[in-house]
Amino acid sequence: MAKSAPQFACTACGNVTSKWSGRCDACGAWNTIHEERPLSSSGPAAKSLGKARGRAVALSDLGIDEPPPPRTSSGLSELDRVLGGGLVPGSAVLVGGDPGIGKSTLLLQAAAAFAGAGLKVIYASGEEASAQVRMRAQRLGLRDAQVQLAAETNLRDILTTLDAEKPELVIIDSIQTMWADNVDSAPGSVSQVRAAAHELTTFAKRRGCSVILVGHVTKEGQIAGPRVVEHMVDTVLYFEGERGHQFRILRAVKNRFGPADEIGVFEMTGAGLSQVGNPSALFLSERGTPAPGSAVFAGIEGTRPVLCEFQALVAPTPHSQPRRSVVGWDGGRLAMILAVLEARCGIPFTGLDVYLNVAGGMRITEPAADLAVAAALLSAREDSALPPETVVFGEISLSGALRPVAQAENRLKEAQKLGFTRAIVPAGGSARDTSGLTLTEMGDLASVVGSIFGA
Ligand code: TYD
Ligand code: MG
């Protein structure tokens, strides 16, 4: 390709191609490909060698007794947990999420918390003027927090400020508003977002200053999404939740310094986000008397057990093609469970619309929820509630067999703590200490159907 030939990049995944198309070959998104200038058209040829001499060090020469990186705890335990036990100096963190979900609120609270823990913090806002950030701080009761504000969008100005102020943590809200004047494309484009993230993370590594980048998830259009910079940072967190619900979940999807899949649970209130120490109690709080279609799943999110409720509705369809609608769970997995119920248990869902929802706006990804989904579907179809105070977990294989899942004991302990008395689980699991819980151990889905619904 000639040097001056145009380049095209996908704003959803960052994939670069030489020609435009309506759909991205890499991620399948529509209308996300836009023209971009190549990052450095006038720099030295890539094949020429740099002047500085590189150095390679034998792995065995590196100190093996080095202590783990010191971490700063913010005091917000839900945030610290998701970071893997606190913020690592010099690390780069990306916090992605839909616009309006509460990222700025979370990070202003985090900024104040880290400042309270003794860090020098700069909050650079490209989206709101200083006065607006101050108003938000007042609403959150953080007016006196020792956080420096910078309402800047020019990357060079921000780096100059950081160079002079030498903060220990800088928060960039948001990466899509940052603008590097040596890159020849509009703010928010793939090249701009990449360049800004690259400069900021390298600065962070060099100076031992941590950086938190905020990235809006964009459905389509000209603005590059947070996925474009995921590979440049140490930790990727997504802030998620349903607009109509007050619960917000901060989920680690990548973490070089801690377990991935860890979640922190918050509640959006009139005075900012408050931490939820016992998510199970919260997710189950809307549950009344056992109703048909409801099954409580004892799940594990990261290192912590979390109970939540699956709700199913099964109704005759007025359409030729029945509907399958899922919120908070994988649609493909639902189709698999419906197929197993039909093929292995002789329970068809043809001609029936199926709706499945996880209460409270929670999103479940564990296959261990298979059995809870199947139980909710069966209960809805039979219009008969599951036995009261019962939790369910287990993975279902295509043959209809139930597979034991990890951390059964932790799941059961949490269920017991919340007052559950029975559990339907796969046979052959490792859970032994279940005093106080009646275990119903099942080898396959057909016996679950038989024992609960007498079919
Ligand atoms: P915001 O943090 O601005 O979202 P983001 O930065 O992800 O775009 O939060 C926006 C929403 O949060 C807004 O609809 C108002 C609501 N909110 C509260 O409910 N309570 C509060 O204390 C604050 C500051 C915001
Ligand atoms: Mg914001």
Shape: globular
Percent in strands: 15-25%
By helix and strand content, what is the structural category? alpha/beta
Q: Number of helical segments?
A: 10
What is the third-level CATH name, the topology of the largest domain?
Rossmann fold
Ligand types: thymidine-5'-diphosphate, magnesium ion
Q: How large, in whole angstroms, is the Cα Rg?
A: 25 Å
Keywords: ATP-binding, DNA damage, DNA repair, DNA-binding, Hydrolase, Metal-binding, Nucleotide-binding, Stress response, Zinc, Zinc-finger
Region (Lon-protease-like): 353-455
Family: Belongs to the RecA family. RadA subfamily.
Pfam families: AAA_25 (PF13481), ChlI (PF13541), Zn_ribbon_LapB (PF18073)
Summary?
Keywords: ATP-binding, DNA damage, DNA repair, DNA-binding, Hydrolase, Metal-binding, Nucleotide-binding, Stress response, Zinc, Zinc-finger. ATP binds at residues 97-104. This protein has ten helices and 21 strands.
